[in-house]
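name: query_chain
kind: protein
chains: 1
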Amino acid sequence: MISKLNLEDILFLDIETVPETRHFSDLDKIKQDLWELKSKYQRADISAEDFYERAGIWAEFGKIICISVGYFKFQGDIRTFRVTSFYGDETKILKDFKHLVISHFSQAKHLLCAHNGKEFDFPYIARRMIIHNIELPYKLNLFGKKPWEVPHLDTMDLWKFGDYKNYTSLKLLTNVLGIPSPKDDIDGSEVRRVYYEDNDIDRIVVYCEKDTIAVAQIFLRLRGDSILDNSEIKHI
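structure:
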């Protein structure tokens, strides 16, 4: 049961991604053709070029621009949730994230937790690491692991209670669980524009960190614990 897990053993995270290039025309001809083929069934009557703004959701055509992480620390009865982010060059983001995982969350007891992480965040990070010739840390290397050996938690998966037809967004789940959600400056659909057109990575980092905090808040509610007060959240 998740109520028996030690909160200090869990690394909560969220990622933000964008298309690998600003414009479809910036791709070489082979990659353009591959994108047309890959997106054929999703885009219906929309051209491959117009649909390219959504390419960030595919690891083969996108890139990670921010990984935000959060973890609990307890000093007696004092609880804090520490949040930090890796952003900038994708290779450096991935290497810094890997270093954190290996240095502080590599033991058998440690778990990674994200919302829809099993379908998106975890495989996306792993695929981008392989693309950049970065050896996968044990926590992301699932080759040969049995389902019960996978060190991942997924708040959306936990909320499903076995109902695999169900998809519940992070925003909806925080709302129904009564978790305070400050009005966001941007949402996920605007990340590409803010990154490529506004060149404002700081806004994206703030957004990513809010989502990481929301994942932790949902996990606390699913355990029956009290949610975090703003005074308990530390940005480092």
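note: The mean pLDDT is 95.
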